[in-house]
Amino acid sequence: MNLMSMTDNAFQLIGGRTCLDFLNTANWSKDGEVIEDKLLSDKDLALWCHAAGLQDVTGKSGRLTEILEFRGSLRGIFVATLDGTAPTKKGMAALNGALASMPSSALRVSRKKGLALSPSLTLEQAIAISAAAVLSRDLEVSRVKICPGNDCAWLFLDESKNRRRTWCSMETCGNRAKAQRHYQRKTKSAK
Ligand SMILES: [Zn+2]
What we know:
CATH class: Mainly Alpha
Strand order of the largest sheet: 1-2
Shape: globular
CATH superfamily: Jann2411-like domain
Number of domains: 1
Distance between the termini: 56 Å
Largest sheet: 2 strands, antiparallel
CATH architecture: Orthogonal Bundle
Number of helices: 8
CATH topology: Jann2411-like fold
Bound molecules: zinc ion
Radius of gyration: 18 Å
Number of strands: 6
Helix content: 40-55%
């Protein structure tokens, strides 16, 4: 299977951090329920890992349910953090469990490659590293936003200079909102 040709545009990596892109593999309701999932099979998961540069992570076959449960837990932590409430114990246990299970050789700094992740990491561990890096920095946490688009609720890091990024992407939710405003203006003036 040629993964390269299949990954083109298959996944939008707009979160700015790997952990956020991972959470954006589904669209979410306001209550944190999955509305639409892009990870429906091991193949989808493999494609996402490839698109996200995590093709080397281990143990991603036959564990989709577990991985999606981890995704839900992790998203709960981010949403609670944005709301200024305490994340659930279960969520924290999932994240801390992934961090604690890391092999001691997981992170290696090589002069040639910079900080290299050990290829023996699981997806959860690789995502947990990214999540811990964001969650442990106030500067990053303060820039995490949630897209207000209908049935989207993707998370992203607002790295714009004036911190006024609103949408996951202008091409999707941003344009939909613009079209909606336009439509509302038109119907109002028609009355
Ligand atoms: Zn959106």
